Amino acid sequence: MAATTLQGKRIAFLAADGVEEVEYVQPREAVERAGATVELVSLKPGSIQSFNHLDQSKTYDVDVAAADADAGGYDGLVLPGGVANPDFLRTDPDAVRFVQAFFEAGKPVAVICHGPWTLIEADVVRGRRITSWPSLRTDLTNAGATWVDEPVVTDGNLTSSRKPGDLPAFCTALLTQFA
């Protein structure tokens, strides 16, 4: 069943240098196994450098730059974590605009670990129930969200998780959300 639930859907992964590799790779593999087409959106053409915690890992080719990406062409958005990745994304107006467009359209968004920093910048967490890496608790609370310490939380079109250890639950929840 899960192998075909996203057939015909197009999912964007928004990430930059410093993305936590496992938080990019595992959800991407889950979405692709479910039949969706995936595109990596980033700050510029070329490739991004992933990390395994603080150690450099693999690079991944960017499909489209955020400045050229149209949220209208996608059925869902995934924001993987890593500390540097969302910090780069939240300072880029095109990346923030791209995220905002998904929320304005009511499309499903999935975010993990430090990824909510980009959501805070996009001003889309106010009134939401969300989880994240624990160090973002104050940032999310100050941005008007209700932060909870749970493996996965779905609030409307937003699914969130805390850390790599939550990836099995996160992947299951985002597939359900995107279907």
Automatic annotation (TrEMBL):
Segments traversing the membrane: none
Example of a GO biological process term: proteolysis
Gene3D superfamilies on file: 3.40.50.880
A GO molecular-function annotation: peptidase activity
Top-level taxon in the UniProt lineage: Bacteria
Coiled-coil ranges from the UniProt annotation: none
Domain DJ-1/PfpI: 9-176
Classification via InterPro entries: C56_PfpI-like (IPR006286), Class_I_gatase-like (IPR029062), DJ-1/PfpI (IPR002818)
One Pfam family matching this protein: DJ-1_PfpI
Keyword tags: Hydrolase, Protease
Family stated for the protein in its record: Belongs to the peptidase C56 family.
Protein name (database record): Protease I
Species for this entry: Micromonospora echinaurantiaca
